[in-house]
Sequence to fold (1091 residues):
Amino acid sequence: MFITDIRKEFYDVVVNQRVALLVSSDIDALCACKILQALFHCDQVQYTLVPVTGWQDLGTAFLEHKEQFRCFVLINCGANVDLLETLQPEEDSIFFICDTHRPVDVVNVYNDTQVKLMIKQDDDLGVPSYDDIFRDEEEEGGDDSGNESDGGSEPSGKRRRYDEGEVERRIERQRAMREWEARRREILFDYEQYEYHGTSAAMVIFELAWVLTKDTKDMLWWAIIGLTDQWVHDKITHMKYVTDIATLQRHVSRHNHRNEDEDNSLSIDCMRISFEYDLRLALYQHWSLFESICNSSYTSCNFKLWSMHGQKKLQEFLADMGLPLKQVKQKFNSMDMSVKENLREVIEESSNKYGMKDIRIQTFGVHFGFKNHFLASDVVHATAALLESTEKDDSPGDNFIKALDCLSRSNLERLHGGIDLAKKKLMAIQQTVASCICTNLILSQGPFLYCYLLEGTPDVKLFSKPMALTLLCQYLLKAFVRSTRNKRCKLLPLIIAAPMDVEKRTVIVLGIPPESETSDKKNFFGRAFEKAAEGTSSRTLHDHFDTSIIELKMEDRTKFLDALITLLS
Amino acid sequence: MPTTSTTDDRLSKFKNKGKEPSKLRERRIAECVELRKAAKNENFLKRRNITTLPEDADQSPELNTDNHEVTAITIEEVVGHVNSDCKERQTRGCQAARKLLSRECNPPLKEIVEAGLLSRFVEFLGRDDDPSLQFEAAWALTNIASGTSWHTQQVVEHGAVPAFISLLASPMLHISEQAVWALGNIAGDGPAYRDTLIECNVIPALLSRITPDTPVGYLRNLTWTLSNLCRNKNPFPPLSAVQQVLPSLIQLLHLSDQDILSDACWAVSYLTDGANDRIDIVVQTGIVPRLVSLMSFEALTVVTPALRSIGNIVSGSDIQTQVAIDAGVLSVLPSLMRHSKPSVQKEATWAVSNIAAGPAQQIQQLLTCGLLPPLIDLLRNGDFKTQREAVWAITNFTSGGTVEQVIQLVQSGGLEAILNLLTVKDSKTILVILDAINNLFMAAEKMGETDKLCLLVEELGGLDKIEMLQNHENDTVYRTAQALIEKFFTDEEPEGLQTEATEATDTTFAFKTQDVQKTFRF
Fold:
């Protein structure tokens, strides 16, 4: 069931309990987790934090903790499958689910006792009504003789004889029942067809903190990062992003306003969040402007930097801005103050001339003391890089803790480390995009585009991770759409596959919807993958919380793809 | 030795070696109950999700129409009419009562009984001069007998049984048919009333109504009533009665109407659900080939009871099983094991498990007819209840099969499939699997190939799983697993270190790369 009063129905319940906090491996989940941890600290709630990377992980974590815990809080996992069916919990286990995955499984929606969904009702949910998908036993069977339609069960020992009219009505009702079932299938098909994402988990938990009047600037910042993660990883529509930014901006003003009476000046340990209309250049404040332009998807795609022509255009662009190359190529921090002063305006003006009308975007930045300034999207990139670090000796658990740590204000060193990793990651992505475009690795398969990263491609290990591969896939599709002359291909979704585990001979496969400015970001690959796997009995593992990401045996790749083509044609 | 105790446990489940053939049936009953419980729980689970029960929209208009009729006449008025001496009023009252009893919602069974109407109704059954009154009374009593045991008891105690039996001979077909129906309800109440009816010679009276001209509708009711006369155990229906019914039942089984076939098959399934002598009576009639052919009937309502009957028969003696095999059951079972309904898969696998419990020749026939591939498929992909039956089939196979047969089983992937199932939660199933593994090792010992099998089990990731089972919460599982390891897996470490042997192997294999194919199946 959906929780309507998150304070009464969730917080007041768990505050006196020991809580198992199961957190998915994505940035929004980490942020929600940070906020919740802070709240739990305030109220001295005992909790155990367990990172989970997939369904199997979730199942194991549940089994390990079901004896000691009654309350389970699931962040960014659990909403889109029948949880009770999956976990088979005892009657007294309660699950509080704060998950952006849509559609929410209908059984979760209509279970009143064990599944509590912390999901904003104003999200575009479209849950079928109860009567359309569930019927009660009495109605279903009528009584004993009504079960005959099901067939195969033992006949009843006794039978009552009904009036003739009654018999007709019974037949009529059976017919209605069949119609109802057909309609039910249709409704559920429509409802479950597409996968998409709802309001950020961090924002939902932040709102709880606000309702409790325990919200702090740190919490607000985490909520901002949660939302920005959804934007960076292309999970929500532009409309939704802008709307939610506006919501957060109100909170930001409130917080800034609150502090105005106090000293009103920056101090060494203060934190100040500000709304910015900043550049869509990744990490530019921690890099050089030039490198950031080269490695940001927006600029790189617009210039087509993988081509000579593109490189030339970039030079022209820089000249147009009138910035000395030396300044542009040196560390941003060391750029002349005079150049930096109205840099954003200068860049915007030239960008407009070069067809980049959206070079600026509404976002937030944070000042920690005097020295440190970070943009929300930069923190997302840094945290993601830490979370999916492929450095040796890092277990997923370690990475999770490091990523979580880098979100704390006290741990700026770790954040800087993450930024360095993120730079490497972005460069790897850009190089891979360039080589895929230049060597025509993206093939049109009819109903979709397909790209397979061969074993031995540089940085291929990085792309065995879901978030990195997602980012690559998005940038690649944008680049492809810019570079191809085939109009039909511009409207196609993209599937990418990359080696996952060489020893197990598996690949990770993921699909994203077509690239367009008005895209609703709804992804149908989840269902399609399931169907294709079923039809060909391919050995697949649908373990990821996003159904559009699966693992597949390398040998089964061809037949799986063939089935997918047939299915979607 | 823990292994011996589980072996005994298993032995008693075998049809041949077991001293108690009823044990096997117990298993099936326990499962049925469990199934029903599961279904109920499922409904419960769904139902508890609801806060406000949605009103049954399409039921209300019906209620209203019923109420119109009902408000026209109350039970008091019915009593007045029925007790009057006026024929027309009697008929009208009786009809009104029948209508009350025929409505879908809350028929006033108890109220009618308590109004003292039953003795009058039974009396009306004998009114050959007024067929419509007879008919209404028969219908009303039929519906009362369809209630709880108490309701049925009321009908019987008012002397309805002899009245209905004489009514069977009525020249009016619809009245006779109503009597058949009423008697079916009484027989369906349980073994006591079933035998009361049999003692009143209901069977010859019923059978005399089967003629080439009898309409299908009538035959359907009659078949159902006959099936109720075959139904229920503790005690079974008397042998003489069974022998009386069987020829007609065989006759009905050769018709083509789906409902008749279904009820007739159910009747056979009741009759075969007993000790070997009970099964024998059915097998003697020569009906087995027909039953086997009905297993491929298109309607599930026929397939299920036919399969159940054959399943019962192959749980009998080797000779009885052979009759079913000779009738071609082995060529039908593979398709049923791939049936879309899991319940059918489970029943079919249950039958296979019993054939696998037979002598080596019968196991050979299983192999020849290609039952191994679907069986192993089900071990891999079947639903859990089916997997459990399949595991039994494998264990029975390994215990009765020759060394060559067992080797073929392993080569077809049977070992891998059962090893993968060692991770299930149900400890009983685990014990059955461990038994199969034990049997395999005994076969390997005969061949002197123990080491090879050890290696294979290891390679398939089985050793890791068996080692894990030593931490199992169930005591017997833990001890059986330990015994297996001690017996077959420790002596290959000649360096000594007996006490740390298991730990040592543990670490050795921790580094081993898992067989991909297996871990990847999902």
